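Hello,

Our lab assistant flagged a job as stuck in the queue for most of the afternoon. It eventually completed. Since we weren't sure the result was trustworthy after the delay, we are filing this so someone can double-check. Below is the sequence as submitted and the structure that was eventually returned. Let us know if re-running is recommended.
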Amino acid sequence: MVGDGLQGRLDLCGVRLTRGSPVVFVDPWGHTLDPFQLVVVALPEGETLAIVVVAPGQLVENEARVEPRGRVVRVASPEDIAAFDRQHRAEPDAIAPMHADLQAAGLPPGWSDWLVPPGAQPSVLRMPETAAEPRSARAFIDRLFPEPPRGR
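-- returned structure --
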């Protein structure tokens, strides 16, 4: 649906190009889309992968008269996602097989961001448990929030 003369177009789709990036409004180009769906969008800079955050039909007002910056080319296929991943990911060779295994298992792209190459030092280290410093949630909470002395 196109807006009346007083407000801008309502047949827009809001997408993000990267996590936390500004919302870019594009023409849905006749596609039926839902939030969180991956799409290929054509922008002045070229085609890129994006995630739908505002589906067509969810926009109820457009007082700012936002115009589309591009258009949805198609719903992203697994091949589009893999091609985008290969093009934009500079992975160490050791992580690439793990990334492929995650994709083959059907896990979402980006889960391999948490992996480190075999032999690399993890970024979170376990502290050894001692009698003086037990490793439990209760001990942690007690250390942060000691009980006040009783009798006051």
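-- support follow-up --
The delay was a queue issue, not a problem with the job. The result is valid. Residues 1-75 form one domain. The two ends are 68 Å apart (CA to CA).
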